[in-house]
Amino acid sequence: MQPYTEFASVYDIFMDNVPYDSWADYVEYLLKKHKIDKGLVLDLGCGTGSMTRLMSDKGYDMIGIDNSQEMLSIARQISADREDGILYLCQDMREFELYGTVAAVISVCDSMNYILQEEELLKVFTLVNNYLDENGLFIFDLDTRYEYEEILGDHTIAENREEGSFIWENTYYEDEMMNEVNLTLFLPQDEDAGIYKKYEETHYRRAYDLEVIKALIEKAGMEWVAAYDTLTEKKPKPDSERVYIIAREKRQKDKLYLPRE
């Protein structure tokens, strides 16, 4: 089963511990620090749109891209009820297309870790650079090797709630710096009869050394700005579990799209 199909229906319930508010405040701070206080912003790997909506509430015009129809269906329904005008597009971030350029691209909740090959990540970075305004900003987070090796490792996480239950089995492959997650869901089908249906999904995420990310950023034509430990402006530590990367568009004559008038 493809990732984020059945899980989409309960994603926001089981992920209610994710600090989206803190992430949005931090990303807003970084954007404004670099003089981007308004304009069109693309959220890559937007999922059900939690971060997209928070950034919309902060005054940015938002576009959300994700390759899961199920996740986007939830995002669109919530935004329709809010009438927030967010545009959601079902696209693979390795091949995404926009009508023009944007002031910034953001990506949180380890979306970039789902790109498992360096050449594929380069495709994403090159497209980001292509669709950024002049001096536009790219801000994204990454789970670290420490997170996958020491925190998740080969551990199993399980949770039981009224809305359903899940078992999250982690396996770490050291040579590939890869985290494999086998997710088993038990979702109620007939609550009165106590009948549950079992669903299974497998997720793969890869950690990258910062030296590799910097080289790919620069190869894609962007300028490396900084790497920070989570929600700080401090350098990443050996035991950082998540890092934020900031890159900036550099003016290039061969870009396919020019900044909007």
TrEMBL record:
Gene3D superfamilies: S-adenosyl-L-methionine-dependent methyltransferases (2.20.25.110), Vaccinia Virus protein VP39 (3.40.50.150)
Recorded GO MF terms: methyltransferase activity
Statement: the UniProt record of this protein carries the keyword Methyltransferase: yes
Source organism per UniProt: Mobilitalea sibirica
One Gene Ontology term from the biological process aspect of the record: methylation
InterPro entries: Methyltransf_25, SAM-dependent_MTases_sf
Name of a matching Pfam family: Methyltransf_25
Keyword Metal-binding: no
Alphabetized UniProt keyword annotations: Methyltransferase, Transferase
Designated name of the protein: Class I SAM-dependent methyltransferase
Domain called Methyltransferase: residue spans: 41-136
